Automatic annotation (TrEMBL):
Residues annotated as domain CHAD: 24-302
Signal peptide as annotated in the record: none
PANTHER family, A to Z: CHAD DOMAIN-CONTAINING PROTEIN, SLR1444 PROTEIN
Domain of life of the native organism: Bacteria
Coiled coil regions, renumbered to chain: none
Name the record gives this protein: CHAD domain-containing protein
Source species of the chain: Massilia rubra
Length: 311
């Protein structure tokens, strides 16, 4: 008889499962498969967010939400989510976002600075204060995901998807487009996304944080589209494309984290005068490093530009 004492463990955060689309699928069937994949990722991370306030579970739930909203944007010319549901999605994103921002500051940005500078003393109380903000906001996120409002949102999305609720508000031309082959639709989406990214990317040199943010959003949307439709194309075509996009997005994300950190540190300074010196030191450090990633970013951009969107 097994008498070993067993302790509950924190559930592992769940990333998106591999999505398999058939070239024979029509647009409507492919949309349902993509949305189901996104909803599965969101729902799989509920326990980690509610019971354990797990940092990575929250992150993966947010990724699932971003993927879902990106999918809705890709298909919005042929079907549309009701306005009320879009507003509820916006509410959920707003409940989860602040905790993630403070997680990055407390768990990534500040530890990286502490590891690279000698003046540790003023950083410690700032990091503790940031961790406290993150913990408090995890409680807010957990309350939102445990709420009846969240359950209603997920339930309505599930029913809208299963019952193909978009059909009630469609024009005849939209119904025809929903029956077209997903391969043709995907090709048009990927080409459109890549053109938008290339247009914004031309302004990367000497770009300010806002311009870099716009490139990051375009790279993210292009990457999600490529991942959604990856099974429709040869791996040797898709994998280098997605890998290059991921590297570009990651570097832009690090730059964006530094920009966001400045605003969060200002909030800490305003709330507690004892943190002003430490916050000012960190903000100065981040400002001084502001241009150091430009060289790497340009290299990543040059690596991406020769690649063509799968199609």
């Amino acid at each position: 008889m097994d008498t070993a004492v067993r302790f509950p463990t924190t559930p592992k955060a769940v990333k998106a499962h591999a999505l398999k689309l058939s070239p024979r699928m029509n647009v409507e069937k492919a949309f349902q498969a993509i949305m189901r994949n996104c909803l599965d990722q969101i729902e799989a991370n509920e326990a980690g967010v509610i019971k354990y306030h797990d940092v990575e579970s929250l992150h993966q739930m947010r990724v699932g939400l971003r993927r879902l909203r990106s999918a809705l944007g890709m298909f919005d010319e042929v079907l549309s989510l009701p306005v009320a549901l879009r507003q509820e999605l916006d509410w959920l994103v707003a409940q989860l976002g602040p905790a993630r921002d403070w997680d990055v500051l407390a768990g990534s940005t500040l530890p990286a600075i502490r590891a690279s500078v000698d003046a540790l003393a003023p950083l410690v109380p700032v990091q503790l204060a940031a961790a406290g903000r993150a913990n408090a906001l995890h409680a807010v996120a957990a309350e939102a995901v445990a709420s009846e409002r969240y359950q209603d949102l997920i339930g309505h999305l599930e029913r809208w998807l299963d019952e193909r609720g978009w059909r009630a508000m469609q024009l005849p031309a939209d119904r025809v487009r929903l029956k077209m082959r997903i391969a043709d639709f995907a090709k048009a989406i990927l080409e459109k996304d890549q053109q938008r990214l290339l247009k914004r990317g031309r302004k990367l040199k000497h770009a300010d944080p806002e311009a870099r943010h716009r490139v990051r959003i375009a790279a993210k949307k292009t990457r999600y589209a490529a991942e959604f439709f990856a099974s429709l194309y040869p791996r040797k075509t898709v994998r280098p494309y997605v890998r290059a996009l991921a590297s570009l997005q990651d570097e832009l994300g690090l730059m964006n984290d530094a920009s966001v950190a400045g605003g969060l540190l200002a909030q800490l300074s305003e709330a507690d005068a004892s943190l002003r010196d430490g916050s000012a030191f960190i903000r100065g450090y981040l400002a001084g490093r502001g241009g150091q990633g430009d060289g790497k970013l340009r290299k990543l951009w040059k690596r991406f530009v020769p690649l063509r969107a799968p199609g």
